[in-house]
Amino acid sequence: MIGKTIDELKVGDSAEFSKTVSEADIYLFAGITGDFNPAHVDEEYARKTYFATRIAHGMLSAGFISTVLGTRLPGPGTIYMRQELTFLGAVKIGDTITAKAEVIEIDTAKGRVKLRTTCDNQEGQRVLTGEALVSPPRPPKKAGG
User: Fold this and answer.
1) Per-residue model confidence (pLDDT) at position 72
2) Cα(125)–Cα(56) distance, rounded to whole angstroms?
3) Quick one: pLDDT at residue 139?
C-alpha cells in the first residue's frame, strides 16, 4: 500500500491525526531522545515554572505531524524533506492534540509537495504551526518494464 502520488494530490487536500498526551508518552519520548529536561519530567521543578506543571516536549507534538504525513497525506512511502516549526503554546498531560497537514503547493517538476502543518489542542488553541516539504510516494514500477 502506498499513499497518494503527486498526480493524485491537489491543493487544499488535508488530513489529521489526534492523540491524547499521557504521562507515559512524555517519559517514553524522554527515554527515546534523552531529553530529560525537568520541565518535562520533574513535577516539583515544573511547579515553579511559568506553566506551573510539566509540559510535553515540543517535538512530541511535531511528531504527530510526521504521523499525518507518513500515514495519511500523502501517506505511506512519503519522504519528509523539511519542516519549519513555530511553537505557540504548551501541551500538558491530558491534552488532546490534533495535527493537521494541508497541501498548499505542488511542484510536479521536482516531485515535491509543500504542506501547511498545525497542531491544536482540545480547546481549539493552536500550539504549533509550520510548513513541511515532502516527496510523495512514486507509483509502483510495472513488471517487466
Assistant:
1) 97
2) 16
3) 83
Task: Determine the longest span between alpha carbons in the chain, in angstroms.
Answer: 66
The DSSP annotation for 77-139 comes to T-EEEEEEEEE-S--BTT-EEEEEEEEEEEETTTTEEEEEEEEE-TTS-EEEEEEEEEEPPPP
Q: Distance between CA atoms of 82 and 109, rounded to whole angstroms?
A: 18
CB 4 within 8 A of CB 138: no
Task: Report if residue 101 sits inside a domain.
Answer: yes
Mean of the pLDDT values across residues 80-107? 98
pTM over cut 0.85: yes
46 within some domain = no
pLDDT of res. 115: 98
Quote the domain boundaries for residue 17: 6-21+58-135
Asked whether residue 26 is domain-assigned, the answer is no
Crossing angle for the helix pair 23-33 and 58-71, to the nearest 10 degrees: 90
Structure confidence at residue 54 as a pLDDT band (50, 70, 90) = very high
